[in-house]
Design a protein that fits this description.
The protein has about 475 residues and is α/β, with parallel strands linked by helices. The chain is built from 17 helices and 20 strands. The strands form four sheets. It has a five-stranded parallel beta sheet, with helices on both faces. The two termini are about 50 Å apart. The model has no long low-confidence stretch (mean pLDDT about 90). The structure holds S-adenosyl-L-homocysteine (SAH). The site of S-adenosyl-L-homocysteine (SAH) has 25 residues, from helix 5, strand 8 and strand 10.
Length: about 475
């Protein structure tokens, strides 16, 4: 068994390497820094032990010896251990000491390099470290002295190299660094760009000059770039449509990922507040199993949610059990869930609501039968409409939703957010139940007319409604409702 020293990248979870995600997915133990991004920790199996160590600025810190001993101990116990470190594990991260301790103890280890903040943070700030005609090198230096005191670096010599200077951990010592680079011959007018909390929704870029660096309004953690390239402004991240916005995602935990991802790609910060969870039907699934056993006797099986697909399909031996029965899906998300099980929906309506499905449904032949596995509480429009059209309809409870109990921090973050997204009526009701009306952010965005109607009935004002009732449609509507700052 192995201890993996894994670079987590600078913050944006998309900057974890594929190898890093692989080893996290089968970790027994994750030893992480206090500031690690929560969504990366979720890549580890739910049962994995998660141990928070390391420094918090001006707060408690775990001595390095103890971290080394912990890694050796868990490694010797035969566990798969991931030591998750910000950026790259071998760049100002004491990965060298951890690897040496493991080597000395005879514990197998592997290093999974990460995207270092030295390179990625300037990139997200729109500052290229090299550019033709402006810099032929970049030098990465710690302002902290790396255990040797702030003066350990020969800054005057660094000034003489002539390329870009990238300073990590340099906020506190920036005055001294600036003085010594000036003494080394750099001009006071040399451009400086400092990027705080780079690659994260909180990212903030400060632009100044070497002469102004000491007085610049800067806080840790920041990467400071000094040199002609810092005069370039290729900003893109801070210009994403939802940059600087905080958006609440209310989908059940196992379904939140796809929406969170889309929002983050638009630059938003996300607050996950699952307000409902999916649980077994009241009868433990007996009726669903019975229906699944005779699925081939229906003319149509109609799915109105990916959750119903997830509950129903595992009850079939394989897709041949459908026999001659055709399959309908209410929208692309449900059709996608079917497709992942290699079942292609025969019918997906143009409008992804019950009415749309009803309209698209063919007329029945005599005795035609429809199976509708779905949530315990759901609208009657579809079964009643189908019956009205002459179909015989069996509605079978596939799952129930029930309100969750979110952590107080998540509730507080949700209340302070700019917007909340709802992808179902039950999530609206769940939100009001767990968070209350007072914790509804100013902008409410809904996936479609049914969800919007529920929200309005419960006293909310819906500012954004998806034209196309999909996650992409929802994000588009949100972008329209939240003008760029
Ligand atoms: N191993 C890490 C560096 C750890 S030292 C890496 O390769 O990136 C910690 C310093 O890294 C901070 O003081 C800051 O200078 C920089 N840093 C790390 N993440 C950062 C971020 N998201 N934004 C700005 N600076 C960051």
């Amino acid at each position: 068994m192995t201890v993996y020293l894994v670079g987590a990248g600078p913050g944006d979870p998309g900057l974890l390497t594929v190898r890093g995600a692989e080893v996290l997915a089968r970790a027994d133990v994750v030893v992480h820094d206090r500031l690690s991004v929560a969504s990366l920790l979720e890549l580890a199996p739910p049962a994995a032990e998660r141990i928070s160590v390391g420094k918090t600025p001006r707060g408690p810190s775990t001595p390095q010896d103890e971290i080394n001993a912990l890694l050796v101990d868990r490694g010797r116990a035969g566990l798969e251990v991931v030591r998750l470190k910000g950026g790259d594990p071998f760049v100002f991260a004491r990965g060298a000491e951890e690897a040496a301790a493991l080597a000395a103890a005879g514990v197998a280890f592997e290093v999974v390099p990460g995207v270092t903040s030295a390179v990625a943070v300037p990139a997200y700030g729109g500052v290229p470290l090299t550019a033709r005609g402006l810099a032929t090198s970049f030098t990465v230096v710690t302002g902290h002295g790396d255990g040797l005191g702030a003066t350990a670096t020969d800054w005057e010599a660094v000034a003489g190299v002539g390329g870009t200077i990238v300073v990590l951990m340099g906020v506190a010592t920036r005055g001294e660094i600036a003085d010594r680079l000036l003494a080394g011959g750099l001009a006071a007018s040399t451009p400086v760009a400092a990027v705080r909390w780079g690659t994260r929704p909180e990212q903030h870029t400060v632009r100044t000059t070497l002469g102004g660096l000491a007085e610049a309004d800067l806080e840790s953690p920041a990467v400071i770039v000094i040199g002609e390239v810092a005069g370039l402004d290729l900003a893109w991240y801070e210009r994403l449509p939802l940059f600087g916005r905080s958006v609440v995602v209310t989908r059940p935990r196992h379904q939140a990922g796809a929406l969170v991802e889309r929002l983050q790609r638009m630059g938003a910060g996300t607050v996950e507040l699952p307000t409902i969870e999916i649980v077994d039907p009241a009868d433990g699934g007996a009726a669903l199993r019975a229906a699944a056993a005779v699925v081939g006797s229906y003319d149509w099986v109609t799915f109105t949610s990916a959750n119903a697909v997830a509950r129903f399909l595992p009850l079939l031996r394989d897709a041949r059990a459908f026999g001659a029965a055709k399959v309908a899906a209410i929208g692309p998300g449900t059709a996608q869930a079917l497709a992942e099980a290699r079942v292609v929906a025969d019918l997906v309506p143009e409008r992804f609501v019950g009415e749309g499905l009803l309209k698209a449904f063919p007329p029945p032949h005599p005795g035609g039968r429809v199976l509708l596995p779905r949530a315990a509480v759901a609208r009657d429009i579809l079964p009643e409409g189908l019956r009205g059209a002459g179909w015989e309809v069996d509605v079978v409870e596939a799952y129930r939703t029930r309100p969750t109990r979110p952590a107080p921090e998540a509730l507080a973050a949700a209340g302070a957010a700019d917007a909340v997204t709802f992808t179902s009526s039950s999530s609206v009701a769940g939100y009001l139940e767990v968070a209350g009306l007072a914790a509804v952010p100013p902008v409410v965005a809904s996936i479609g007319p049914v969800t919007s109607a529920t929200a309005r009935n419960l006293g909310l004002t819906v500012a954004a409604e998806a034209d196309v009732h999909t996650l992409d449609g929802l994000v588009d509507a949100l972008v329209r409702a939240l003008p760029p700052r």
